[in-house]
């Protein structure tokens, strides 16, 4: 799937890789500056802080992915250390956003389900279906309140952890390292070689790992809809797709639009799987009313249906070869 172009066939690896890292480091620093500017406790400030945090996370992921894939063209010890620190930062900042998005998804789904047919692996008997919808209507409000308490608490804790991280000496060390990266990239001797040789090999390896992971995804007929253990290969493919996308950005100089649809499908798959797990965990709360537990069970089923739907969208939008192993 490699498409050599003038960008990597006539230049050194250093002249391609260094400007890309400079650009991502500058994006990280812009996000950091915006975060500091919008830290006031107002609605506009909160919105600006969220945008700035997203920019920080995106830049951190791209730098980390680039350091991972093209490690051979960089000073290995430096690349490994900075990649580890950026992964810590990105993960810490992502948790608050993830909890907030999960709560919105679950409450919206509850609202839709309380007036819609109950999702089921089997067609319900009409009389039972009416009884099930009535029970769902009773339990939906309490289930929503329970989810809001649980996920708001988790989000508050994640917000505190993010603030602590952003004020820590560890974060300031990361920010200093990225600031240096904006002007100076510690390259290895091999980076002086042609970009077509030095950069394409690791980029092709990242692509091959992705293709292997996608080919190993279980076919639809072998999938058990409510078996969360079967999510792992899809989450792994999502991580590899992200690395592949970042590698293509380096060697081609721009994102590959052909991968956008598949990436969004795997993001939706992750979101739905996490939401289903949150509903399941809430249903295990001690001493909740049967109607509340029932509503959470229906909600879990709905999110597992969303997981299946996301897999179908991925298969439809995957731009390369067949997505199942022979």
Instruction: Compute the separation of the termini in Å.
Output: 20 Å
Sketch the topology as an H/E string, one letter per element. Answer: HHHHHHHHHHH
Structural classification? mainly alpha
Mean pLDDT across all amino acids: 89
Q: What are the segments in which pLDDT stays under 50 over at least 5 consecutive residues?
A: 116-127
Strand content: under 5%
Radius of gyration: 23 Å
The best one-word shape is: globular
Annotation, overall tally of beta strands: 0
Output the number of helix runs: 11
Q: What keyword list fits this structure?
A:
CHAD domain-containing protein, 326 residues, mainly alpha, 11 helices, single chain
Which SSEs are present, and which pair or pack?
Layout: H1 6-9, H2 13-37, H3 43-69, H4 76-113, H5 126-166, H6 169-181, H7 195-198, H8 200-215, H9 232-252, H10 260-283, H11 290-317
Helix pairs in contact: 2-3, 2-6, 3-4, 3-9, 4-5, 4-6, 4-10, 4-11, 5-11, 8-9, 9-10, 10-11
InterPro entries: CHAD_dom, CHAD_dom_sf
Domain CHAD: 10-323
Pfam family, one: CHAD
Describe the structure.
This protein has 326 residues and is mainly alpha-helical. Helix content is 74%, strand content 0%. The chain contains 11 helices and no strands. Helix 4 runs antiparallel to helix 5 (126-166) and helix 4 (76-113) packs across helix 10. The chain is globular, with a radius of gyration of 23 Å. It starts with 5 loop residues before the first helix and ends in a 9-residue tail after the last helix.
């Amino acid at each position: 799937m490699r498409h050599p172009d003038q960008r990597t066939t006539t230049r050194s690896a250093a002249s391609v890789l260094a400007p890309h890292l400079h650009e991502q480091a500058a994006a990280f620093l812009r996000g950091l500056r915006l975060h500091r500017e919008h830290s006031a406790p107002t609605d506009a400030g909160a919105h600006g802080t969220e945008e700035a945090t997203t920019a920080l996370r995106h830049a951190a992921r791209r730098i980390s992915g680039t350091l991972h894939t093209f490690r051979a063209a960089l000073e290995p010890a430096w690349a490994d250390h900075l990649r580890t620190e950026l992964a810590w930062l990105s993960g810490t900042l992502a948790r608050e956003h993830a909890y907030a998005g999960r709560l919105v998804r679950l409450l919206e789904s509850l609202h839709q389900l309380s007036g819609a047919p109950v999702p089921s692996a089997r067609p319900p008997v009409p009389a039972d279906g009416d009884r099930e919808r009535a029970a769902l209507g009773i339990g939906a409000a309490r289930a929503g309140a329970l989810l809001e308490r649980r996920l708001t608490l988790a989000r508050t804790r994640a917000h505190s952890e993010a603030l602590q991280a952003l004020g820590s000496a560890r974060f300031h060390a990361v920010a200093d390292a990225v600031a240096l990266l904006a002007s100076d990239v510690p390259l290895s001797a091999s980076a002086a070689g042609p970009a077509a040789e030095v950069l394409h090999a690791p980029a092709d390896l990242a692509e091959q790992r992705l293709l292997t992971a996608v080919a190993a995804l279980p076919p639809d007929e072998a999938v058990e809809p409510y078996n969360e253990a079967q999510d792992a290969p899809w989450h792994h493919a999502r991580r590899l797709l992200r690395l592949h996308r970042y590698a293509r950005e380096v060697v081609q100089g721009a994102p590959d639009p052909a991968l956008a649809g598949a990436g969004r499908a795997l993001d939706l798959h992750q979101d739905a799987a996490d939401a289903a797990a949150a509903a399941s965990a809430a249903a295990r709360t001690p001493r909740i009313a049967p109607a509340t537990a029932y509503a959470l069970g229906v909600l879990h089923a709905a999110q597992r249906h969303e997981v299946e739907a996301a897999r179908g969208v991925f298969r439809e939008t995957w731009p390369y070869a067949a997505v199942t192993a022979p």
